[in-house]
């Protein structure tokens, strides 16, 4: 190892300046080659502060810059660490090291470097403001949003009543009275949703959601609905795609009384086979619990194939094909079924999104239902049309209005389970 006594420090300094010009002109490979040929002019561990030590710091710092310019962030990190460990008075190497950690996905180390940098008394206010902006927008920071929504909803069948006037049960005709006929009502909808996400490292992340919505039907409070929904997911990149593991808990109450609870787990593998094509395979396991009627409790296994295709910017087609195998204590409630979803999203304008979807869900149950003498078979359909408008043209980009209609229909070989229902809604959403 050459020492400062046998090295022409002026010549070394000139070569460093030449390499810095190459870095400034983005000639990173040439600059790295020049710097790698320079001798070691100082042992930084000795702690002696002289011109040779400063030149050695300049060499390491410049080598960190040229390697970063070439995308060789691991090598750049090693050089920046040498500088930071030897001289803790200069802010710029701390900033470059923090950014390098961030590129490498070493977010905890990046966070520590930013903290050390902001604690430096020598950091000028302009740079401090820029660093604080980086920290506030850093990918490893916990990101969360709170959505509030309110609006009106008109429901043609709040009691989910059959669309027939009578049906046969135990060989006798049961005639539906006025209370058992479909009831139309207007409701006030209100909800709050918390969404959050956290980048764990460059390959994995966490996300979650907690949502509470309620629809109060005026004059028909017994049919008011409250839904609590809580979910969390772990995501990790792999094989040119991503897999995720999700869990969910949901509870539905009607008229203030609990009706249904759900606990579910999903494993999803997403592959991007083309820049505009995304294919997802999903395996779900759900447990449904019905209040006061445990014989209807279900466990369901549901594999699904989901395909999303973006035809061009602003136009997205999506589809889903699924199979359900559900088991209950009472086999009359066990079923096998399928799910077919088709839909389209179209950004008519940057602030206006139009969407349409269709869902088909045929189910066949396992055994005869008591009183009806038949094995139940159902076919359910769901149509949705919606327009969402964001008020960003009015400087209210956090406000969105949704206008739409849902149309539900169920046909069954047992008339008591055949019904139709439509819901028209207008909702305002505000995001914090």
What can you see in these coordinates?
There is one protein chain. By secondary structure, this protein is an alpha+beta fold. Helix content is 22%, strand content 51%. Strand 15 and strand 16 form a beta hairpin. The protein is elongated.
Which key phrases capture this entry?
Porin, Serine Threonine Protein Phosphatase 5, Tetratricopeptide repeat, 7 helices, alpha+beta, elongated, 2 domains, disordered N terminus, two-stranded antiparallel ribbon, single chain, 14-stranded antiparallel β-barrel
What would you say about this model in short?
The chain is α+β, with helices and mostly antiparallel strands and 432 residues long. It is built from seven helices and 16 strands.
Strand content: over 45%
- Give the strand tally: 16
CATH fold-level label of the largest domain? Porin
- Determine the number of helices (DSSP H or I, runs of at least 4 residues): 7
**Compute the gyration radius: what is it?**
32 Å
Order of helices and strands: HHHHHHHEEEEEEEEEEEEEEEE
> For the record, what CATH class of the largest domain applies?
Mainly Beta
The parts where pLDDT drops under 50 for at least 5 residues are 1-5
Overall geometry: elongated
Give the CA-CA distance, first to last residue. 60 Å
CATH architecture of the largest domain: Beta Barrel
**Which superfamily, in CATH terms, is the homologous superfamily of the largest domain?**
monomeric porin ompg
Tally of domains: 2
Helix content: 10-25%
By helix and strand content, what is the structural category? alpha+beta
Largest sheet: 14 strands, antiparallel, barrel
Provide the spatial order of strands within the biggest beta sheet.
1-4-5-6-7-8-9-10-11-12-13-14-15-16
Average pLDDT reading:
88
